[in-house]
Design goal:
The structure holds 2 protein chains of 2 kinds. Chain A has 12 helices and 21 strands. By secondary structure, chain A is of the alpha+beta class. Chain A is extended, with a radius of gyration of 29 Å. By secondary structure, chain B is α+β, with helices and mostly antiparallel strands. In chain B, strand 13 and strand 14 form a beta hairpin. The chains are: A alpha+beta, B alpha+beta.
């Protein structure tokens, strides 16, 4: 190689080396500042002003990109996980619906939930429903019952109570004597924040503000404030308390429950338990839970004549499975409809290939929820089934489960079931 | 063959230099490039942001389409942004909807167009609400019109406002500068309502309130409710009133003061001592910036000062009291403070909403980090300022802050001052 070529080559190598360092810093700058995105954002910014009445979808996505870019550019720690931002946004949207049947579930919670949908429980062997004290119930005849006295106070719609919806037979909770309808009061020494106590404080506080409180009420207010200050120092929010009860397969959880005016204390071991889809009861009734495979199992044990089906202690269930069970018990026809409050066109719940009409008795109570309650209402209103027991739960929501790519997910109420009576 | 090997090693060299360039900013700032840099490098080349944005959009549309009730587009968008910003796990990084954003700026500016009266909800027997006058601002339009503390506002511009929410009533009273508003007012012991006319003007919210010499003592008391734009000025004005009465000690009540502007903390410290570090701010690049108090603004306090703090004293209020503690200019009495050790910036967004984002951490002059730590249940573990004299508020009685009969923390503050003055 001639000296000239050598000089040119080494100069080239040097230039390339410098270029590598410089391009490294440039890429760092742009990734820190998201310069490429920012210029795009500026264009869109001017566009937004003129497109105010454009489709809202455009603006939601614009907002998303605007806010996440801003965070990446300004936040004190590097923001690198876009999926975390998206999941946060979905969690926020679901929470804003303020519906206890619309829940965002993180990957761990979602796994517990998916198992429960198939009758496989962890924790102490119960499911805890989020109960808002404003909700109204229906009695066995489908007549609405009034909500509780707390209906008009502010905390009822924000903070739910945790009510035992289901106790798995034979589970540690069952052995410890926990019953559907019990309200969770504390877990492992942590007081579960609940709306009714907060409401009492609110009402008394309001009276005091208006100068209308009696001397006894003022004394009570001060005493309550003293008690709740202590309690709040060891409090736990409902969703966290729920996780402490319904997930995990080892250890012992100490809990207190409110039942009527009493408080019950339990020490319960966490383990796994299984709720069978179909079970024969001692009294001759068949207990049915609408887990996958329920219809097939019901078919095998169904007697030819009159039948009694126990729908108590019934929370989770699959809509499709319920429809198949309906077809085993009743003739073809329409058994009600699913109404949403937007379109105004209800979707009928139809059975196309039904069975012979028969005498049906359904055992129901407050723990007959969701799909089981729909089943009971459909049969009693349209197939002459007899409902036996006190009023059912207020829960007739049709729920869709959405799974997200990272294993988390959410539930969404897509309609409300109504068992319209056929004209006689 | 030799050339291929050479070319390979040359490429490796280039790559190493590139990574060096990428991490240069950290090296310059005197720290090793962390794993966060590796992550950033990864995020720069593996773009998952496009996919994540699509996922957001799909679920947004799904909720609007499939939820059984209709959900307003803006409400859902805002809720999504709230959740997005909350996902960082920092309680001070948050999205503010247009109304919140507006309230927030009124709060930090502490001036707006109105009549200059603070109202509180008055529960109606029928279940609705009215508005009761809680405080009249000095020299404001309401004071000039003759409005008094405790008056009940039952009508605005001749129309009844009974049963309306407080926000609604306030928005009716506010309006353009220079216009008139008629207030129908019912007074506790008068049968007939009176109609007062006030001219709307720019009013400053008093942030230094309840100024008084405590009965039976020579000690002045004033309550600072927030650190907004006019606070330092209002503080000097109120202090002047107290000093005319020859006070021998001062109690500054910063309990429940959520803080506000850093500049106000600077100005407030400047009254005590000039040209001193207020805080050291550490930004995301590890670069440090020292914020100092202004020089030549000293007030020259000739008496001991006690500052009252509690768990709801935060941000600028905490910085100011922490500085006084570090420079031994005052004694802190009460309970530990909140423990907010970060600086936020507010960015206005399209449509009137805004984003409040933590951009830096700060440290007090002594170097302490007062950042709040909580356990899995959200309960306080450590952080905040530790008071020199710890005393818990006795809430077994109905407490009125600033009242020696019911406020035991104030009683303690007086004891401390008595010790210091030897009285």
């Amino acid at each position: 190689m001639s000296p000239v070529v050598k000089t040119v080559v080494s100069a080239g190598v040097l230039v390339l080396c410098c270029a590598a360092v410089v391009s490294g810093t440039v890429v760092r700058d742009s990734s820190d500042l998201h310069l490429h995105k920012l210029s795009a954002l500026a264009d869109r910014g001017t566009l937004l002003a003129s497109l105010k009445n454009e489709s809202p979808e455009t603006s939601a996505l614009d907002y998303y990109e605007m806010v996440s870019d801003l965070l990446k550019r300004l936040y004190v720690d590097p923001v690198t996980d876009d999926n975390k931002l998206t999941n946060g946004a979905i969690r926020g949207m679901i929470a804003s619906l303020e519906n206890p049947d619309c829940l965002y579930l993180d990957p761990k919670q979602f796994k517990v939930f998916s198992n429960e949908e198939q009758g496989k429980f962890e924790g102490v062997g119960v499911d805890l429903a989020l109960l808002k004290t404003t909700s109204k119930g229906t009695d066995a005849g489908g007549v609405p019952t009034p909500g509780s006295e707390d209906a008009n106070t502010p905390y009822s719609s924000i903070i739910p109570q945790l009510e035992v919806a289901v106790v798995v037979p034979g589970s540690s909770a069952d052995k410890a004597g926990i019953k559907p309808g019990d309200i969770l009061d504390s877990v492992d020494g942590h007081w579960v924040v609940n709306p009714s106590d907060l409401n009492t404080l609110y009402v008394l506080g309001g009276k005091q503000l208006a100068g209308k409180a009696t001397k006894e009420e003022l004394t009570r207010l001060l005493e309550m404030r003293r008690v709740y200050r202590k309690k709040l120092q060891t409090s736990v929010m409902p969703m966290k308390a729920r996780d402490m009860i319904i997930s995990g397969t080892s250890g012992v959880v100490k809990a207190t429950w409110k039942r009527g005016g009493n408080v019950i204390t339990t020490d319960v071991a966490k383990t796994t338990s299984q709720e069978p889809a179909v079970a024969q009861e001692a009294g001759g009734a068949i207990a049915v839970h609408f887990f996958p495979g329920a219809a097939d199992k019901l078919k095998r044990v169904l007697p030819a004549g009159p039948v009694t089906i126990d729908l108590r202690n019934n929370d989770f269930g699959d809509m499709q499975e319920m429809r198949s069970c309906l077809a085993l018990l009743a003739p073809a026809g329409t058994y009600g409809e699913i109404v949403d409050q937007k379109s105004g066109t209800p979707k009928p719940l139809k059975v196309t290939e039904g069975s012979k009409q028969r005498e049906i008795t359904l055992l129901v109570d407050h723990s007959t929820r969701g799909v089981a309650e729909m089943f009971a209402m459909a049969l009693s209103a349209n197939a002459g089934a007899k409902l036996q027991g006190p009023s059912m739960s207020p829960d007739k929501n049709v729920i869709e489960v959405v799974k997200l790519p990272d294993g988390s997910g959410y539930t969404l109420v897509t309609g409300v079931f109504s068992a319209n009576r056929r004209a006689s | 063959m030799r050339y291929i090997a050479r070319a390979f090693w040359f490429l490796v060299l280039l790559l190493v230099l590139f990574v060096f360039g990428f991490g240069w900013r950290d090296i310059k700032a005197g720290r090793l490039p962390t794993t966060a840099v590796a992550k950033l490098l990864d995020a720069t080349f593996v773009q998952n942001s496009e996919q994540a944005a699509q996922e957001f959009s799909q679920n947004y549309q799904k909720i609007r389409a499939d939820y059984y009730k209709s959900v307003p587009a803006d409400k859902l968008t805002y809720a999504g942004m709230e959740g997005l910003m909350a996902s960082l796990g920092d309680p001070h990084t948050m999205f503010m909807e247009p109304q919140e954003a507006q309230d927030f700026s009124v709060e930090t500016d502490a001036h707006f167009v109105g009549v200059g009266a603070q109202l509180e909800p008055y529960p109606e027997p029928s279940g609705g609400q009215g508005a009761k006058v809680k405080m009249i601002f000095e020299n404001g339009p309401a004071e000039k019109a003759g409005l008094k503390d405790g008056d009940l506002i039952t009508g605005v511009d001749g129309k009844s406002v009974l049963g309306l929410s407080l926000e609604n009533i306030v928005s009716k009273i506010r309006g353009k500068e220079g216009t008139e508003v008629q207030l129908t007012v019912v007074r506790p012991k008068e049968l007939k309502p009176v109609v007062l006319t006030a001219t709307r003007a720019i009013v400053e919210t008093p942030t230094v309130t309840d100024t008084k010499v405590l009965p039976g003592t020579d000690f002045g008391y004033l309550q600072v409710t927030s650190f907004s734009m006019p606070t330092a000025e209002q503080f000097v004005e109120q202090l002047g009133k107290l000093e005319k009465q020859h006070i021998k000690g001062l109690i500054i009540d910063l309990r429940d003061n959520p803080g506000g502007l850093l500049e106000t903390a600077q100005d407030m410290l400047g009254l005590f001592v000039g040209n001193k570090t207020v805080v050291t701010v550490k930004g995301r690049d590890g670069e440090q910036e020292t914020v100092a108090s202004p020089a030549g603004e000293e007030h020259h306090f000739k008496y001991p000062v006690v500052v009252l703090i509690n768990e709801d004293s935060a941000s600028a209020a905490e910085i100011f009291s922490g500085d006084l503690q570090d420079y031994q200019l005052a004694t802190l009495v009460g309970m530990h403070s909140y423990g907010k050790a970060s600086v936020q910036t507010v960015t206005p967004l399209v449509g009137g909403s805004s984003a409040k984002i933590t951009i830096a951490h700060y440290f007090l002059p002594s170097g302490r980090d007062i950042g709040r730590k909580v356990d899995d249940y959200g309960q306080f573990v450590s952080g905040g300022l530790t008071p020199d004299v710890k005393v818990e508020l006795n809430q077994d009685v109905e407490v009125t802050p600033g009242d020696l009969k019911t406020d035991n923390q104030l009683v303690k503050a007086v004891e401390v001052l008595k010790q210091k003055t030897g009285s």
